[in-house]
Design brief:
Layout lengths: L30 H17 L3 E8 L2 E2 L2 E2 L3 E8 L4 E6 L8 E5 L7 E4 L13 E4 L4 H4 L12
Length: 148
């Protein structure tokens, strides 16, 4: 007499084993998990950093005009938020900027380079608010966006 199926779950009826769903796979096989882990490690390492110094090359498009490439020495500190720039390239040579949030009237203090302002020689000191029109006309970015 032929065997009949009773609807039970028999080993011979199960078929090949299925792969586990993507969410239960080990993180090693999941590229997004690898990326998240890398981000967590970078964030943890950065949390331990109070300040850092970098050499920065930048070129901006401001008001539809290309600005020349500049090379700067940049120093950043988290607390209190502080930024220091010194222009190293021919473009802007001699210019320096320092800003410390909550200090010195919350202004950016600058040492101008030759040609920064008409009729003003290089080496003149100025203090400007970060949102002043003169500052915003020379960069698309606020001083508060500086750093990582």
């Amino acid at each position: 007499m032929p065997a009949t199926s009773t609807g039970g779950n028999h080993q011979e009826d199960a078929g090949p084993p299925l792969a586990p769903p993507a969410s239960s796979r080990p993180e090693v096989d999941n590229p997004q998990a690898k990326l998240r882990q890398l981000y967590r490690e970078a964030a943890d390492n950065y949390a331990a950093v109070d300040s850092y110094i970098v050499r920065l090359r930048r070129r901006e498009l401001v008001n539809g005009r290309d600005k020349p490439e500049e090379t700067l020495l940049a120093k950043f500190r988290k607390q209190p938020f502080s930024v220091y720039f010194k222009w190293l390239s021919k473009e802007g040579a001699g210019r320096e900027l320092i800003f410390v949030k909550g200090h010195y009237d919350d202004k950016m203090h600058m040492l101008l380079a030759a040609g920064d302002m008409p009729l003003v020689s290089g080496g003149k000191r100025m203090a400007l608010a970060p949102d002043s029109m003169l500052v915003r006309s020379s960069s698309r970015h606020s001083i508060y966006e500086a750093g990582i």
